[in-house]
What does this fold into?
Amino acid sequence: MKDDTIYDVIILGAGAAGLAAGIYTSRAKLSTLILNEGTPGGQLVLTHEIANYPGVESTSGYQLGNIMKKQAKSFGCKIKSNLHITAVDLKSETKTVEVNGKDTYAAHTVILAPGGRPRMLNVPGEEEFKGRGISYCATCDGDFFQDKEIIVVGGGNSALEEAVSLTKYASKVTIVHQFDHFQGFEHAIRDARENEKIEFEMESMIQEFIGNENLEAARVKNMRTGEEKIINVEGTFIFIGYVPNTAFFKDVVELNEYGELLTDDRMKTNIPGVFGAGDSIKKPYRQVTTAVADGTIAALSAAEYVNEIKRKQKDLSEA
It folds into this structure.
């Protein structure tokens, strides 16, 4: 089935960046369609608490994402979720996106905001115990580990902040980190170090997950001394970064060696009329606020591009 509408903007992805872009373009009276492979909110819905979003004292990621979705729809933005993108043509003047192998949508511009997914350790037992003790989402699974001992893997803001959050449930949290220092902000490091439920295994890496039906332990190796130990735990939460959801666009738009979209300061990619935004683009910091900023800039740039097209079409019709 082909939707005969030619939208002004199609946005691929409904995380913070995609929803922010949708709010701006639809409020600017540009016909906007968001196509999203998951549920609206992206990584936002996995965040237990957001306390550093300007103007909002504290909220959950799910609540913030839901508000953004409602805002976009209130301005006329259409959102289609839980679909699979099967083909794109971004180089033609009119861009097209095929979903589920049958439905095709067209637009003057496209904003790529596919976000990313949690990076795996890729050690023995990880795949086996995923969902049976191993998780990548504290918000989703934290309450399953009430009064149990768990491990948190990682040393950035996400690992530190979620480790603190998980102490509301777990009796003990051991942070396993491969370096002798953390990469998080000072307040996140301080909060973790001052929490009496948290212990640390620095310069260490998990070598294997052990269990029968469910996770029972992890084998941890100190990379400096070579010493190995078995830590008995019923849960492990892994926060070691992300992988951009850009593999589908590898031969379509320019990416760097890490699979990140390459954009300029206007969020333009190497293809005219195609913009990038959010956690999938190359940038030093990945926060909700930076994703929203990316989406805003991409939307304003897309609006300028669409308005130029319409101005040229008007000039031709009047000639």
In short: Helices lie at 16-27, 61-74, 138-141, 157-166, 186-193, 288-318. The radius of gyration is 22 Å.
